[in-house]
Amino acid sequence: MPSTATTAPRCARRWRRGRARQQAFQPFQPETNLFEELERAFRDYGETGTAVTRHYVHDAEESALHGTAPGTFTDWKQLPENSDLLFYEGLHGAVVTDKVNVARYADLKIGGRARHQLEWIQKLHRDRSARGYSTEAVTDTILRRMPDYIHYICPQFTETDINFQRVPTVDTSNPFIARWIPTPDESMVVIRFKNPRGIDFPYLLSMLPQSWMSRANSIVCPGAKLDLAMQLILTPLIMQLIERKRSLK
Hints:
Helix content is 44%, strand content 13%. With 249 residues, the chain is an alpha+beta fold.
């Protein structure tokens, strides 16, 4: 039976190798993403009305839908033709680097983000309950991802046309000990318009009770009104995009 002295170094080496792999591949960095392919898909759709894409399968429900195991990608497929618009939901829809500029190909860029402490609380609860991670492991992940978050995620919110940011109204000073995730009723939403020209602010304020303007281009509304706010703001903008597209035929 091997002694602790002989097995511990192997475990330590294996842990260090695993940690090195985690540090080498982070979800926000260019090395882990196909930014060029994403830019090509946006460009091709704008020019031809179709593009080649694939999906990342997150869980069992998506696995049943796509027939691919969770944690893997589907095969590359051509999008159907004759669609009215392309909707992309992901981390890098407005990414700009020294090699690519995805943001320039999107007609309407929407940012959705929670305050950092709230994001961390959500991640801690999700990873501990669904994945069995310890608080220390999740904290380590957050720290390792922070440089890439600053360099590749934050700048995208400067490119977006509208940002929806959820801000908790309860104490989240130390998110690593929070026992509950703040609810929508315990939050406010800050909605920032890059170009406020043409936005009917009096109408939005009248339709969103207890809302107010914090700046000339920003509305603050109760967190529980987020879905309503998105419907009121985005529906006419999407309809305008569709009408513009059809007028070009």
